[in-house]
Amino acid sequence: MVLELARLWPAHPLAFWALLAAMAYLLVVGARLSWIDLHTHRLPNRIVFPAYAVAGVLLGTAALAAGEPARLLGLAAGGAVLWVFYFAVRFVYPAGMGFGDVKLAGVLGLYLGYVGWALLLWATFAAFLLGGLYGVLLMLLRRASLKTAIPFGPFMIAGTVLVLAMPAAG
User: Fold this and answer.
1) How far from 26 is each of 23, 36, 84, 92, 132, CA to CA, in Å?
2) What is the Cα–Cα distance from 96 to 116, expressed in whole angstroms?
3) 61 and 39 in contact (C-beta within 8 Å)?
4) N or C: which end of the chain has fewer CB within 10 A?
5) For 2-6, 122-126, 134-138, 155-159, which range has the lowest pLDDT when averaged over its residues?
6) What is the dihedral of CA 10, 11, 17, 22, to 10 degrees?
7) What percent of the chain has pLDDT over 70?
């Protein structure tokens, strides 16, 4: 996303500002949702649902202002594909993932789909890797067992932000 922003600035200032606003929104909402999930094991609908509209409008504005309407399909497909993937995981093993994670996946998929399919895969991998490492660390520290519930939203957000922050993500 860094290179994407750099590319947009001189040629399409409106697209630059819309994309920058979308990224700032992701950081603010992501931090808030992470904090809530870590403390309550919940991802509130009152925060997640509006994020679909805000992200869609900001990313859609960036795509149209840059003259790249094909990105609209990418962001919509990314949101749908990631939502379906997390829904399938939830369906197969309901105790392992909450439905809040499924709803959050759709929002994160909008961002990742805007940039490209490869990043959608890398961010998903990063989320599961980070969550797994955290779980192993907790077990090594004897603060958790195999049955301990771990909030997954923060790792989904961290994986997405990490992948989007990489310079090659543009």
Assistant:
1) 5, 15, 21, 29, 23
2) 28
3) no
4) C
5) 2-6
6) -120
7) 98
Q: Where are the domains of the chain?
A: 2-169
Q: How far apart are CA 82 and CA 17, in angstroms?
A: 26
The encoded tokens of residue 156 equal 């989904």
Q: b/e per residue, 39-51, with b = 16+ CB within 10 A?
A: eeeebeeeebeeb
Q: How far apart are CA 68 and CA 73, in angstroms?
A: 10
The token pair at 60 is: 């859609």
Tokens found for residue 48? 């997640």
3-state secondary structure of 1: coil
Rounded CA Rg of the chain: 16
Model confidence over 32-81: pLDDT tens digits? Answer: 999 999 999 999 999 999 999 999 999 999 999 999 999 999 999 999 99
**Dihedral Cα 8, 14, 17, 18, nearest 10 deg:** -100
Evaluate whether 29 touches 47 at the Cβ level (below 8 Å): yes
Whole-angstrom distance, CA of residue 119 vs CA of residue 113: 8
Model pLDDT for residues 81-95, shown as the tens digit of each residue: 999 999 999 999 998
